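Sample pair:
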Amino acid sequence: MGYKQNRNSKHKFEFLLTDVFGGGWQKKIFEIIALKIYPELIEQKVIKAGWNSSHTEISFKKFNIMTKIIFDEFDVITIISDDEKGSLEVIENWVKLIDDELLLNQ
């Protein structure tokens, strides 16, 4: 598995998962967040649903840091946070944990 930081993003922090694609991972990523990160808040919503693709997101809050995982209509999975309370180290630790857990579950 893998991920990379998008340093040219309009968001404060943005990471792309590079080895998994599509909404099929949505349920597993939701479970990983709930069972391994233990957020104070977690929610999932559909932005746009279509016949061949969808655009959904998972939002969670931990340490008062809001983070979103976006599953876009092009099957790209992006993890973003614009929260001023966030730090690169904290967000990247969550990204690495999600990536490592996906690797174990393949």
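The longest helix spans residues 88-104.
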